[in-house]
Design brief:
Blueprint (H helix, E strand, L loop, with lengths): L1 H24 L2 H4 L3 H5 L6 H9 L2 H6 L4 E5 L2 H4 L7 H9 L2 E2 L5 H4 L8 E4 L1 H4 L9 E6 L5 E5 L8 E10 L3 E6 L33 H10 L3 H8 L5 H11 L3 H32 L1
Parallel strand pairs: 1-7
Antiparallel strand pairs: 1-2, 3-4, 4-5, 5-6, 6-7
């Protein structure tokens, strides 16, 4: 009886500690997520999700507690389609960040100063010379740019939007283009959009003196234009003509003087006749 009573507590303790033992040995099972099911909700990332399945990257993603995935949509992921599946796995491994980042956290990064982070590709041990590290910069235009930390690598991708997140476990961010890793794979990237050049409006040239002379020669002068538009006989000229036909003041005086002289002469003749008649008497 004593032995049975002593064994009972030990069995109870074993059942009590089993869940704790399970949590300690399998911590990822508590916060695990299924990236495949998550991306299945977004058909525009179907090709990217398919690559994660074929390369078995989804298995590594699902065992992580904290992770950020830089996803490519169907039109963008085709830029790496010419590579072998092994190379695609390395390229996409660099698109998986071993930390949690969402747009709010990215915009808190120092402006203009690149931040270096670790990707899943680095954890494989196959990356060399910074190939497994990424650089993120919050540029002065407020954009978030991504690039490989390898020497000479460009900032080839930009943040487009947040696709899905579960703080602070998993974040899926859409980027504009694949991250180019020097020495790994080929990339069929679209050419950069041409910059819009500002073209100043062209002002019409001012007329030169020679042009003024030509215009003046072609156009009638004010005097000739006035003459061309004036009637043949203006009122003033008609008045002048009428005045020429009518007797002027000089002509009137001349006629009056002649009449006066005629009357004086006639009176003298009459007076002389009277004198002669008186003498005859």
């Amino acid at each position: 009886m004593m032995n049975n009573k002593q064994k009972a507590p030990s069995s109870i303790l074993s059942f009590a500690f089993f869940p704790l033992f399970f949590l300690l040995c399998f911590p990822s099972s508590v916060s695990a997520f299924n990236i495949t099911k998550l991306l299945n909700q977004f058909p525009e990332f179907g090709a990217f999700n398919d690559y994660l399945t074929k390369t078995h990257l989804f298995e590594q993603i699902n065992t992580r507690n904290t992770i950020t995935i830089l996803a490519l949509d169907n039109s963008t992921v085709s830029a790496i389609a010419k590579n072998s599946l092994d190379t695609v796995k390395e390229i996409l491994g660099a698109h998986i960040i071993l930390d949690y980042y969402d747009p709010a956290k990215l915009r808190k990064l120092p402006v203009g100063k690149p931040t270096e982070i670790t990707s899943m590709f680095q954890s494989t041990g196959d990356a060399v010379k910074q190939q497994g590290f990424l650089k993120i910069v919050h540029n002065k235009r407020g954009e978030i740019e991504f690039g490989s930390a390898a020497k000479g690598a460009p900032f080839s991708a930009m943040l487009v939007k947040s696709v899905a997140s579960r703080p602070y476990d998993i974040s899926v961010l859409q980027v504009s283009a694949p991250i180019v890793i020097p020495g790994i794979g080929v990339y069929n990237l679209p050419p950069p959009a041409p910059e819009t050049l500002f073209v100043a409006p062209v002002e019409a040239p001012s007329p030169s003196p020679a042009d003024d002379d030509v215009d003046d020669a072609d156009s009638p002068s004010p005097s000739s234009k006035a003459l061309a538009e004036s009637p043949r006989s203006s009122p003033k000229s008609a008045e002048v003509a009428d005045d020429a036909d009518a007797p002027g003041p000089a002509d009137s005086d001349a006629d009056g003087s002649a009449a006066s002289r005629g009357r004086v002469a006639g009176g003298g003749v009459v007076l002389a006749g009277l004198v002669a008649l008186c003498l005859a008497w």
